[in-house]
Amino acid sequence: MSSTMKSKVIGIDIGYIVTTIALVDIRGTILALDSFMTANYPQINSFVEQICERVVLLAEANGGFDTVRSVGVTAASANYKTGSIENAVNMPWKGEIPLALMLRDRLGLAVAVGNDAHGTALGEFSFGSAHGMENFVVISLGHGGVGSCFFSNGHPHLGCHGFAGEVGHTCVIKDGRQCTCGRKGCLEEYTSERGIIQTAREIMEESDEPSLMRSLPELTSMAIGSCCDQNDKMAWEVFRRTGYILGIGLANYASITNPEAIILTGEQTQVYKWLGPSMEESFEQHVFHNMRGKVKLVVSTLDNRERDVLGASALAWTVKEYSLFL
Amino acid sequence: MSSTMKSKVIGIDIGYIVTTIALVDIRGTILALDSFMTANYPQINSFVEQICERVVLLAEANGGFDTVRSVGVTAASANYKTGSIENAVNMPWKGEIPLALMLRDRLGLAVAVGNDAHGTALGEFSFGSAHGMENFVVISLGHGGVGSCFFSNGHPHLGCHGFAGEVGHTCVIKDGRQCTCGRKGCLEEYTSERGIIQTAREIMEESDEPSLMRSLPELTSMAIGSCCDQNDKMAWEVFRRTGYILGIGLANYASITNPEAIILTGEQTQVYKWLGPSMEESFEQHVFHNMRGKVKLVVSTLDNRERDVLGASALAWTVKEYSLFL
Amino acid sequence: MSSTMKSKVIGIDIGYIVTTIALVDIRGTILALDSFMTANYPQINSFVEQICERVVLLAEANGGFDTVRSVGVTAASANYKTGSIENAVNMPWKGEIPLALMLRDRLGLAVAVGNDAHGTALGEFSFGSAHGMENFVVISLGHGGVGSCFFSNGHPHLGCHGFAGEVGHTCVIKDGRQCTCGRKGCLEEYTSERGIIQTAREIMEESDEPSLMRSLPELTSMAIGSCCDQNDKMAWEVFRRTGYILGIGLANYASITNPEAIILTGEQTQVYKWLGPSMEESFEQHVFHNMRGKVKLVVSTLDNRERDVLGASALAWTVKEYSLFL
Amino acid sequence: MSSTMKSKVIGIDIGYIVTTIALVDIRGTILALDSFMTANYPQINSFVEQICERVVLLAEANGGFDTVRSVGVTAASANYKTGSIENAVNMPWKGEIPLALMLRDRLGLAVAVGNDAHGTALGEFSFGSAHGMENFVVISLGHGGVGSCFFSNGHPHLGCHGFAGEVGHTCVIKDGRQCTCGRKGCLEEYTSERGIIQTAREIMEESDEPSLMRSLPELTSMAIGSCCDQNDKMAWEVFRRTGYILGIGLANYASITNPEAIILTGEQTQVYKWLGPSMEESFEQHVFHNMRGKVKLVVSTLDNRERDVLGASALAWTVKEYSLFL
To answer: Which residue in A80, A129, D112, D148 has a CA-CA distance of 20 to 30 Å to B105?
Structure first.
């Protein structure tokens, strides 16, 4: 059977705020982009319809729908093994959403659905800092949580039920802060932006020493960082404590998985300048001694506006091309 | 080239005390066994010579040396990726011992060398509770330490430098007990037999309430367990605390790797009767919520006298048959 | 979740004549066996019912149904990727039979279905001559056809649609004998028992020299072989020609896959004594020169009565344990 | 350890005539190119020196040598498993050349060496028509030979000794044309340009009918093709016969490996316009019936001047980054 190969895929990233759709070629060039507000479609059916309409329009305007090989979708709480979004906490749609099935039925294309961190790891592996690595960890430090995925022997490790990589919910402080997940002492309660702000509050309450942080109109990790730039001692203490705990969490992760590198992504990498030094020191101090000095800690160099849809596009290539007639 | 296949391997387990050599067939039947005191050969050369002599004798007495396909060796601090024992703490030979090379040169057979936990995981995968599992964890609770290895997608995850699985040196108590490795708060400081005894001592010091533990001639985990059998409240508290911390450590491990099962082996499984209930409760309490009730916790059912050499024999099958003439 | 692991599986081999059911443990010990005539159940529903009844009885009589982990089934024309028997030529049931689904629904257990050669390869890998090999070929020389499966990098190579390994239908003689498959010159037209008999007929027609073959009551490959034992020149010529062509077919296979070994199984290995020498000579003559003398040619040493159900049992371990409640 | 990742590799293709060196980024953008005549360096040491000098110059002129991660080299008869060129027929250097070792010693970088077809397959997988495919075949139709490599389950299948993919030396015509390799009837004796020319000669000798081919100044496959464009019956017969045999060879390959696609590359794809139709017809006629209409036959769409170094660059990413200090 003589054929022409389809050389483009659709990458879709569903964020709490924005859903982005990209047409991407094999080498990670984004050929076209579209996006809309996720919250505008609180009904899953109309959300899926909206995606499909825009995918078709984007493809038709850029070479034709029949040049599209497959679709990759990333979303929080999505599970590659089931193709579903499962009980996403901050999404408008509750329960189990069989998104891959819904999209495949409507688009007639093969669809892969995976969680954010899975997509990010594939993106770094295909186009970023993890290219060529068999074993690595990707950590996404976000506002609300800490996501992660690691590769084992050149393949994403998703685990038995597709839930692996939940380092954000490993317990780093026995009987520590109450986490939104119901447990105590979870890493993300200390190292997400929420956690950093909470630490800042605790430090301010511990004494009544002066600090620039006290007069910030809004406590954000960036604002705390800019206090550091003015040599605010208490602001530095926020990042020292956060870095120390993040260093423990990553060291534990590394002691278990022995990665070639840990790649940091997510909006909180914008405070890496202040967070990084104490994190790295704590990491080296807590990691299994044979790995000391051997695990690279790097910040992702992929473009922030491209990372998520690139990861989703990489996911699209993991499914077999689908046709009703094959 | 018409050939007869070699259907037996040599499995060697180097323990601190005893080195055991077994001739094992494909199905895990131990055809012959030999052993000697490890400490009798403090020079690595004479130790290797001793192994080789006994391997040849064992093989010649049981079908002939030329029916042996390959050799697998397990030892603490051995690294499959280098074939060496690397800075073993309690072994008589210091530094880096290129054991695979030394044995291959002398025996003329392919040799695989791996650490204890790697061998144990292969043994459980080949002949035990992990048979048929793609993703699982093996934990070995010993007197002095906690070893571990996990499988990812049907293969052992050794990590970038061969050091993966060091859950025993993950930090479970921030700024906790001083570990022999130089760090603080390592899991094995609480959950190895040494750790259990230390916990018993601490509990006895916390109060002057009576306890059967106070009159034990020697504090061992088994002795503490037998106090439990006589309803000693403080003895139960030892296992409650140990189980709680072990539950956290294993929950963290599971949250990262999402295994189908965690299989417990090692001499400390003899106290599982007392340790298990609190460990399981703590595990379910600390594991990532989507995995609750889904990760099997099981004690290895392999014969204690066979487990180590079976694991070593499984390792022997992972190397390609070697011949000077191929 | 504390658990006991299930340590037995059911292996079922569906042959044209007999269907065999075995209860097998992890190490390949057959704990119990049952069998019935396949043709007695020309309706697929009653055939499936018959299997289920016997599986339950076998399990209940040997430790209980709830000690069974999963089920593996081998049959001609079965496809592991779909779990179906697809257009089997000599089976009573036509079209596509979703056997894995039918059995899983009725038994409530995970079920793997694969073709004969896939099962045989897994059996040799788990319990036979291919143990420890990353790359090997299994060839089954049967009465009517030649089946095959090869391993690549330690895993069965099933190909894109699950149809790989059809060396029996590679064309070895351009515009040669008409094959039942519709093509011409297929390897199995020369090297199955049917092909051997056809060659014997052709040789007898080529001349009117005397031959013991001419007075055989029935031409079978064994009967022709016994003529060889009496130094019948024409009988030897049958195996010479067959071996020459089989040698080409296997050499082509090896030049493409470069296996460590080619393992021969199937009823026609009973004539290997006569077929082997010319096959081996032709193989060495036709294989890619760098592989000469390096590819082992071996006859399976597994017990004929056990081979098929052992392979089916190995297949059973490739599927994840299934439960409605997990 | 905080680090910057190296995001470029060197891809080197050693051809009989020209050796090309490229600096390539992760996404397959060729940043700089250099080349020299292979035959100018008949001594392997001076050839290696020449490569190293040019690699250093190229890197220094384009971002610095320390931004280069690793080196990939493709050459005929190179073996990825040994890192050596082994008995290359048309190269100036005889015997076994440990090229990977020689380059690594001089450059201080990790080096992968593989044969042409291995590189081509990796190139198609990374940047071309095979992207996203788990199972596919790449065939290179050259002037003198037919090279090939196939992927199994997402990985290159190199076989036990690294020699897999030698479809060019499968026997398609029993006792056929004498091959340069010593055997008879090899596919490449019919389907390389040499083979096509030989077929043209045979056809001209079979009769004394007129043909434009008879007055060609030089018989080349392109020249024969242009005769087809003028409706020369005998020229068409050349491609009909060639296509028929190539169809058999590829069908046999597909029946064994069941690929999603067969991707054709190499200089002889320039005659695909004439060769393709009969090849495709013969392929469908000879492939295992269940695969009919399911295996895509496609011509590579990668740029001819880039293909080889892109493949070599893809090879460079398969080795672990190397440093004397890690």
So the answer is: D112
Check for a shared fold between D8-115+306-316 and D129-301.
Answer: yes
CA dist B160 → A254, B40, D190 (Å): 10, 35, 47
> Hey, of A77, A263, A290, which one would you mutate to test binding to chain B, going by the most B CBs within 10 A of its CB?
A290
Buried b / exposed e across D227-264, counting CB within 10 Å, b at 16+?
bbeeebebbbbbbbbbbbbbbbbbbbbbbbbbbbbbbb
| A157:B152 CB<8 A | yes
Q: Residue A175 corresponds to which tokens in the numbers above?
A: 């009987």
Specify the pLDDT at position D4: 76
Residue A171 has its nearest CB partner, among B161, B163, B251, at: B251
Boundaries of every domain in chain C = 8-115+306-316, 129-301
Q: Give the pLDDT band (50/70/90) at residue A325.
A: low
A-chain residues near B294 (CB < 8 A): 160-161
How far is the C-alpha of D323 from the C-alpha of D313, rounded, in Å? Answer: 19
Helix (H, G, I), strand (E, B) or coil at D317: coil
The two three-digit tokens of residue A98, written as one number = 């069989």
Report, in angstroms and rounded to the nearest whole number, the Rg of chain C calculated over CA atoms. 21
B3 pLDDT higher than 80: no
Burial of C182 from C-beta contacts in 10 A (0-12 / 13-18 / 19+): exposed
Q: Taking CB atoms and an 8 Å limit, are C5 and B276 in contact across chains?
A: no
**pLDDT given for residue A287 in this prediction:** 97
| pLDDT tens digits, D242-255 | 999 999 999 999 99
Q: How many residues in chain B? A: 326
Helix (H/G/I), strand (E/B), else coil: D182: coil
| Percent of chain C whose predicted confidence (pLDDT) is above 70 | 98
Closest Cβ–Cβ partner in A87, A169, A182 for B255 = A169
Residue C13 has pLDDT above 90, yes or no: yes
pLDDT (0 to 100) of residue B114: 97
Residue of D nearest to A134 (CA): D320
**D4 phi and psi angles, rounded to 5 deg:** -105, 140
Q: What is the mean pLDDT of residues C297-309?
A: 94
Which residues of chain D make contact with A3, given a CB cutoff of 8 A? 261, 296-298
pLDDT of D132 > 70? The answer is: yes
Query: For residue C177, which of C202, C143, C142, C206 has the smallest C-alpha distance?
Result: C202
Find the helix or strand (DSSP H, E) in which C198 lies. helix C193-206
Parallel/antiparallel/unpaired status of strands B261-265 and B136-141:
parallel
Identity of the residue numbered D284: E
Task: For residue A288, give the nearest of B86, B87, B163 by CB distance.
Answer: B163
Q: Kindly state the DSSP code that residue D2 receives in the 8-state scheme.
A: B
Task: Return the closest-CA partner of residue B145 out of B289, B284, B16, B275.
Answer: B16
CATH of domain D8-115+306-316: 3.30.420.40
- Inter-axis angle of helices D304-316 and D116-127, to 10 degrees? 90
Among B109, B31, B39, B41, which residue's Cα sits nearest to residue B73?
B109
Range from A311-325, B213-227, C235-249, D19-33 carrying the lowest mean pLDDT: A311-325
DSSP C141: E
- By Cβ distance, the residue of D2, D28, D295 closest to A1 is D295
Which residue is listed with tokens 């250099």? D34
Which residue's entry shows tokens 């979870």?
A: A186
Confidence of residue C1 (pLDDT cuts 50, 70, 90): low
pLDDT at position C89, please?
A: 78
Instruction: Report the CATH architecture of A129-301.
Output: 2-Layer Sandwich (3.30)
Mean pLDDT of A157-178: 96
Q: Is the distance from CB of C147 to CB of C168 less than 8 angstroms?
A: yes
In 3D space, the residue among D222, D215, D217, D175 whose CA is nearest the CA of residue D196 turns out to be: D222
Chain B hits for A172, Cβ within 8 Å: 171, 174
